[in-house]
Amino acid sequence: MTLTSWRTFVTVCRLGSLSAAADELGYTQSAVSRQIAGLERELGVPLVERHARGVRPSPAGDVFRRHATTALTEADRAVRAVRGLRDGAPARPLAVGATPSLAAGIVPVAIRRLLDTAGPVRWSLSPGLSLELYDRVVSGDLDVAVVTDAPPGLPDDPRLERRFLGMDEMVVVLPFGHPLAGGAPVRIQALADQTWVEDNEGSAALLRQHAARAGVTARIDLAAADLPGKLALVATGHAIALMPGVLVGALRADVTAVALVDPPTRGIHTLTPRRDPHPRSAPLLDLLVTAFGASRPARAAHRQAETDAHDERD
Predict the structure, then answer these.
(1) Which pTM value belongs to this model?
(2) Nearest C-alpha neighbor of 149 from the set 215, 202, 220
(3) How far is the first Cα of the chain from the last one, in angstroms, to the nearest whole number?
(4) Cβ-count burial of 66 within 10 angstroms (0-12 exposed, 13-18 middle, 19+ buried)?
(5) By the 8 A CB rule, do 270 and 102 touch?
């Protein structure tokens, strides 16, 4: 077995396609197939299953994928560490992951403060969904992940240290010109006839649960690939959307956020490995707490401005 064939297999699993993996790795599709077949002969079990849209790991393949991902991550870190020493650079950059809303909100603020107080630090920031980031911390690919406990939630894992930053209240984002834009906090019942757009299942689940508690149904008729796409559909009047409160201060100029009465909430957490944590993780966690706390006045001011505007119209 070689790390090359392991990397090919992990790439096939991630992309769900032999041809897509070949394109990314610079191989022919037949070369990818031969590497997978070689692994299957050595292990004595099928590692992938074919289906109408491509391939997926078999049960044995999924087990092998998890261990192979960890091994590849450690191998890559070993290479980076040696190259860093050779080049006179710090041996271990700080790898941070965050959900899209947190990567666009409090995380850059906290990293900026870390650089200002701790001096130059090599770092990277990778966006992803909470469970994806959890897997990357477990595998050693990330030193810190800033995630949420929105459905389906976060596993309890003794290998990880989990720190609670606070609760984030979700808001509704509307296009300018919407009858409820700039108004006081609204009840979900007032939006029951609206078309909604969502970009991930966690946010969609929060919306459905909130609507169900109020005895109505939220019509999630549109799907977006990411937050920018979600906001673009709102800005152009195609839909309205549920949005994290931490993003209120960073919204584009052609949409507006309105608070919900008894809004759905999600907890914000950090995940770090208990074994061999990065030396800059601890100060970054403290700065994330500060950044999240500093975002609260902006959200409170937004809600107060909405209420004042509504009172003036009355």
Answers:
(1) 0.66
(2) 202
(3) 74
(4) middle
(5) no
Q: Which residues make beta-bridge pairs with 74?
A: none
Average pLDDT over residues 180-198: 92
Which stretches of 102-194 are assigned E, i.e. beta strand?
A: 123-127, 144-148, 160-175
pLDDT above 70 (res 307): no
Q: 248 and 302 in contact (C-beta within 8 Å)?
A: yes
Q: Say how far apart CA 307 and CA 185 lie, in whole Å.
A: 7
Closest C-alpha among 294, 289, 302, 287 to residue 243 = 302
Contact between residue 55 and residue 49 where contact means Cβ atoms under 8 Å apart = yes
pLDDT-derived band of residue 301, with 50, 70 and 90 as boundaries?
A: very low
Asked if 307 and 184 count as a contact pair (C-beta separation under 8 A), the reply is yes
Q: Please tell me the number of Cα atoms within 13 Å of 89 on its side-chain side.
A: 13
Q: 85-99, 152-166, 270-284: which range is least confident on average?
A: 85-99
Residues 90/84, Cβ–Cβ less than 8 Å: yes
Q: Which residues contact 107 (CB under 8 A, 6 or more apart)?
A: 96, 98, 125, 146, 288, 291
CA distances from 41 to 34, 46, 200 (A): 10, 8, 38
* Kind and range of the H or E run holding 244: strand 241-244
